[in-house]
Design a protein that fits this description.
With 347 residues, the chain is an alpha+beta fold. 41% of the residues lie in helices and 11% in strands. It folds into two domains: 270 residues, no CATH class; 69 residues, no CATH class. The protein starts with a helix and ends with a helix. 35% of the residues are buried.
Length: 347
């Protein structure tokens, strides 16, 4: 799934299910934190963030550990990886598997008569347990993270987190996409995540995969979980609207941006409020740094500052970081990692 599901649709579902109260000690509604955490699973990675300093914006690449004013360090947990490091088996085990390709009821899936214990399956027992425990905890960050993983069991079903032949959909000579490492669904790029797409999983002799059907089923199952907690609007009252938002039958799927923008517009009209998501927001609230002159400044540097010879240095956590969204997300992600490792300990 992508942002139109992980954030926009999840926000609408959470709000309508009854997670519309303001969080104690905060000015944000529960659904907003849940939806942000859900999408942030994809954005909490080794990318560059934009952080303001004295009314200017600067690119920041977070280190693997960040110091505090007390001299201690906070060790980051990443929940996504988009660089060459994805080839590292530890990245596959500790990032892709716990957050995106949760091993499921693998006995139900056979390829050439063989099963794979790391195979993701939709609405699996592991995914349900993970989400149920998060909901029981009352931790909105855990709920958002678990919802991301739960939703991905539909879009990532029958793939695994690891680089292996099992994930090969295409032969290298059939499509240049097949040159990608066989990690997850890399062989077919983003096709499984895009709601508007229909595609073929050539590993199985089956009709084409219609992502709209998978997304609607995921939305319905998510709503059932959330509704039980708060008893908001009954599913029967919103079912048709959610189905129309997901299907967008009158719009083709060739223009991905047009489809995304229209889906966002319709969700905003449905919930009667604008949707906003900025992946820099939680980081910007917690990260401090200093500007330092550098004689070795290279304008071609991807972290370049448009001709200024000033480089962000001494990146650190601000005072009170323990009360920020970013830190609470980090803690929740570590809890989910621990829970998934327990669930998969015998694999």
């Amino acid at each position: 799934m992508e942002k139109d599901f992980h954030h926009h649709i999840v926000y609408a579902l959470a709000k309508l299910a009854g997670f519309d109260k303001t969080i104690e000690g905060s000015d944000e509604a529960e659904a907003k934190v849940i939806a942000y955490a859900s999408q942030y699973v994809d954005d909490n990675c080794d990318r560059v963030y934009i952080v303001s300093y004295n009314d200017r914006e600067y690119p920041i690449l977070l280190p693997s550990r960040i110091g505090t004013k007390t001299g201690n360090y906070n060790y980051l947990i990443m929940t996504q990886d988009v660089n060459i490091t994805s080839l590292d088996s530890n990245v596959q085990k500790y990032i892709f598997m716990p957050f995106h390709f949760l091993p499921g009821d693998y006995e139900t899936v056979k390829r050439n008569g063989i099963t794979n214990p790391y195979c993701t399956t939709e609405n699996s027992a592991n995914a349900n347990r993970l989400l149920d425990e998060a909901l029981h905890s009352g931790d909105f960050y855990r709920i958002g993270i678990a919802l991301h993983t739960y939703a991905d069991t539909w879009s990532h079903q029958r793939f695994t987190a690891f680089e292996e032949k099992w994930n090969q959909v295409l032969e290298w000579y059939e499509d240049f996409k097949a040159l990608a490492p066989n990690i997850g669904h890399a062989d077919v790029w983003h096709l499984p995540d895009q709601i508007c797409k229909t595609w073929r999983d050539h590993r199985f002799d089956e009709p084409p995969v219609v992502n709209k059907e998978r997304a609607f089923d995921a939305a319905e199952k998510i709503y059932e979980k959330l509704y039980i907690q708060r008893k908001g609007t009954p599913w029967t009252d919103i079912r048709d609207d959610i189905e129309k938002i997901i299907n967008l039958d009158e719009i083709g799927d060739s223009d991905e941006k047009k489809v995304y923008d229209e889906r966002k517009r319709r969700i905003e009209g449905f919930i009667d409020e604008p949707l906003d998501y900025d992946k820099n927001k939680w980081v910007a609230d917690v990260i401090g740094f200093e500007l330092e002159k550098s004689e070795k400044y290279d304008p071609a540097d991807p972290l370049g500052l448009k001709g200024e010879k000033l480089i962000p240095r001494n990146i650190h956590l601000k005072d009170g970081f323990e009360n920020t969204h970013w830190y609470k997300f980090q803690v929740a992600a570590k809890i989910q990692l621990s829970e998934v490792l327990k669930l998969t300990a015998n694999l």
